[in-house]
Amino acid sequence: MLEPLVRQSLPRLQHLYDRAPAPARHLLTSARGWVLTRLRYSRETFAILDELRSNESWSAAQIANHQLQSLQETLDHAVATVPFYAEYPRLKLRSFDDFRRLPVIDREIVLDNQDRFLSRAVPARRRIRAGTTGTTGASLRVAYSENLVRCNWAFLLRQRTWASVGARERRVTFQGPRIAPAQRSDPPFWSYNVPERQVLMSIFHLSENSAPAYLDFLLRHRGEVLEGFPSVLGILADFVLEAGVRIPMKATFASEDRGSVRRSRVRHLRYDRVLRSDSGVRTRGDAPGPRLRIPRNSR
């Protein structure tokens, strides 16, 4: 139950973090990483991962059957525990076409009924509150549970195993958190998450002026795992090409920043070529493919 409290406190702690010197920011980042590590690398997470790996050899018929069963369970769960869906018919799904009998909801409906989309199966004190970035419209307030954190991380760990990447291999991350103070003009533009052997890079400070510092940092971390938003990795690849250097990474994972993923498609081939590893590990997106098995106890 620690994560709901920590997540709720993060906005209030951001000002303190921004005012702290670099060593203190590394300490605060690692403290945050320690909390996440207890969820991401728990016994429950690895049990989910084992189940996911055991289902990778399923046939197409087994996958389809599981998908239909999971949709039925999700629908029944929603009708039974989510106020917004309480009046929905108790539909028996015999094929995927049966799902068309349910009404389609749009973003405005969700915005107007955000609290009614919360399941009563998760007590309020166990809900982890967060918000979307709002890149495709108004930001949505969402809630999830610690079980969902474990489940989501198990899917990410499975994706890494496909690239022969271990659970806690060193990685450099270009994603959304505010890592360095906005007014900062000199390095470091990064912070260390020691418990996860991770370096978090500020995507907001990546520019022509700061590019040499970023490239020098990556050269010192070549051969490690690189992950980030595709649009940011594309910009990074542009700077690598302009500098005429080569920075081989063990593997590159792109997680979609939904608002910019469409315009970053063209860049994908570029950073795949520039930032791929010597061993030929290709850049991987975050779509895990059809063989997905969501354990029932992780909703």
Give the topology.
Layout: H1 2-19, H2 22-40, H3 43-54, H4 60-81, H5 107-112, E1 128-131, E2 141-144, H6 146-162, E3 171-175, E4 190-193, E5 198-202, H7 211-220, E6 225-228, H8 230-243, E7 251-254, H9 265-275
Parallel strand pairs: 3-5, 3-6, 6-7
Antiparallel strand pairs: 1-2, 4-5
Helix pairs in contact: 1-2, 3-6, 8-9
The number of E-state strands comes to 7
Mean pLDDT score, rounded? Answer: 85
Largest sheet: 5 strands, mixed
Strand-pairing-aware structural class = alpha/beta
Strand order of the largest sheet: 4-5-3-6-7
| First-residue to last-residue Cα separation | 16 Å
Task: Name the helicity range.
Answer: 40-55%
Are there runs of 5+ residues with pLDDT below 50, and where? 258-269, 277-282, 287-299
Tell me the number of structural domains: 2
So what's the overall shape? globular
Number of DSSP helical runs:
9
**Relative strand content:** 5-15%
Secondary-structure element order, N to C: HHHHHEEHEEEHEHEH
The Cα radius of gyration reads 21 Å
Describe the structure.
This protein has 299 residues and is an alpha/beta fold. Helix content is 43%, strand content 10%. The strands form two sheets. It has a five-stranded mixed β-sheet with strand order 4-5-3-6-7. A two-stranded antiparallel sheet has the order 1-2. Strand 6, helix 8 (230-243) and strand 7 (251-254) form a beta-alpha-beta unit. Helix 1 packs antiparallel against helix 2 (22-40). The two termini are 16 Å apart.
